[in-house]
């Protein structure tokens, strides 16, 4: 059986991907309202066909035409424009040879697999002991988690890069700095908050006399910029000019802390500045003494870093809630360590209860836009923050969260 796995496993994967893609063709017809895919697909296709800049009005017009043909609306941030650094076109070049509706369905399949892999990586990252069946159920449930499901329905690019981010963190903790550096650099232009994660990992690996992460991160950045400059000579000016035309000021910034501050509108701006400042100080305080962290403490600190960085999410996009998963699973791991069977039962009740709250909230107030309102944006990361603080000593000082540690 194992000898033939090299043959039947790829064939099975292709078959499953084909079935899921066919299902997505029907799903997007019924449920997709907003679209993040067309600007990137059009930018790649139109550049290959005509040499047009991805930031040109010609490319934008084609995007609007395609979205109109399929009854899709652009998201509220790019309004149908290509707004990323030009090298992200490379990810969409293969798909640009396929008709839009099929390419979009296939991209949704890629995102669905990315989300499931992200859950597996998050579980493995924190060392949560779960069976293959349990991991499969935990992963599948995330696909119907409303903030993540909305990103898939809009064919967003972010779930793939959330997977890269968590994968990079896992590789870094395994002292595989080269792979981690490549993955984190790929995230930079689409998940700018990943720079904070990269800084943490650079410092953590450097304290262990491993500079491979920072070296490959910087080399790859220069390589991407130079290669893209050759293919798109004016891409930096066009990218920046396009962005400024769309957003001439910083009014587009809307982090979860901004939303929290707006609960008191009169002093919202001042409260927001204070909250972001305090969060930055908290993050730096957690990194203090990074060279002395044990492996167990490093996992906790990384989970805390990802959880805190979520609150810097510039547009309060729900898919960023995937950053809270390592903290969530770390809490479950410690519950099981401390209370065994009761801990596992409590973990499942908590997991299913959390999903029930989000799903009930979604169906009571349906919203398919890519930005989350305050309650769904804050609930999960606040809960995981409380869990991390509750288990802080057990996770960072005790070799195992035994009941005697009380």
Walk me through this protein's architecture.
This protein is mostly helical and 406 residues long. The chain has 17 helices and two strands. It has helices at residues 5-31, 38-50, 57-69, 100-126, 132-143, 146-153, 158-173, 177-187, 194-206, 212-231, 235-246, 256-261, 268-287, 295-310, 325-364, 374-390, 392-396; strands spanning 34-35, 73-74. It has a two-stranded parallel ribbon with strand order 1-2. It is globular, with a radius of gyration of 22 Å. The chain starts with a helix and ends in a 10-residue tail after the last helix. The relative contact order is 0.10.
What is the element layout, followed by pairings?
Layout: H1 5-31, E1 34-35, H2 38-50, H3 57-69, E2 73-74, H4 100-126, H5 132-143, H6 146-153, H7 158-173, H8 177-187, H9 194-206, H10 212-231, H11 235-246, H12 256-261, H13 268-287, H14 295-310, H15 325-364, H16 374-390, H17 392-396
Helix pairs in contact: 1-4, 2-3, 4-5, 4-7, 4-15, 7-8, 7-9, 8-9, 8-10, 9-14, 13-14, 14-15, 14-16, 15-16
């Amino acid at each position: 059986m194992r000898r033939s796995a090299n043959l039947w496993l790829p064939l099975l994967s292709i078959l499953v991907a084909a079935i899921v893609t066919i299902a997505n063709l029907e799903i997007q017809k019924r449920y997709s309202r907003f679209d993040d895919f067309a600007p990137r697909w059009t930018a790649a296709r139109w550049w290959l066909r005509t040499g047009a800049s991805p930031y040109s009005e010609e490319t934008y017009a084609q995007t609007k035409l395609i979205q109109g043909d399929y009854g899709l609306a652009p998201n509220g941030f790019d309004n149908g424009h290509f707004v990323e650094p030009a090298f992200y076109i490379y990810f969409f070049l293969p798909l640009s040879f396929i008709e839009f509706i099929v390419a979009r369905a296939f991209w949704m399949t890629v995102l669905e697999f990315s989300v499931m892999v992200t859950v597996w990586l998050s579980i493995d990252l924190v060392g949560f002991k779960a069976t293959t069946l349990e991991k499969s159920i935990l992963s599948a449930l995330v696909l119907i988690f409303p903030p993540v499901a909305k990103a898939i329905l809009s064919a967003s690019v972010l779930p793939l890069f959330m997977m890269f981010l968590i994968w990079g963190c896992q590789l870094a903790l395994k002292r595989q700095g080269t792979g981690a550096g490549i993955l984190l650099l790929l995230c930079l232009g689409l998940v700018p908050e990943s720079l904070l994660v990269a800084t943490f990992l650079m410092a953590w690996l450097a304290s262990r006399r491993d500079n491979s992460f920072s070296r490959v991160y910087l080399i790859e950045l220069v390589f991407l910029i130079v290669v893209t400059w050759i293919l798109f000579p004016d891409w930096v000016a066009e990218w920046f000019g396009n962005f400024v035309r769309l957003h001439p000021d910083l009014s587009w910034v809307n982090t979860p802390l901004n939303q929290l501050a707006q609960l008191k509108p009169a002093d919202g701006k001042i409260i927001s500045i204070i909250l972001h400042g305090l969060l930055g100080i908290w993050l730096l305080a957690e990194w203090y003494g990074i060279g002395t962290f044990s492996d167990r403490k490093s996992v906790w600190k990384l989970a805390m870093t990802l959880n805190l960085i979520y609150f810097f999410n510039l547009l309060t996009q729900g898919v960023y809630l995937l950053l809270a998963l390592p903290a969530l699973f770390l809490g479950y791991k410690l519950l099981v360590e401390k209370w065994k069977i009761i801990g596992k039962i409590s973990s499942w009740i908590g997991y299913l209860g959390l999903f029930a709250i989000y799903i009930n909230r979604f169906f009571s107030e349906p919203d398919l836009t890519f930005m989350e309102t305050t309650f769904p944006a804050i609930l999960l990361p606040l809960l995981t923050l409380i869990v991390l603080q509750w288990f802080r000593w057990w996770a960072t000082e005790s070799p195992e969260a035994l009941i005697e540690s009380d």
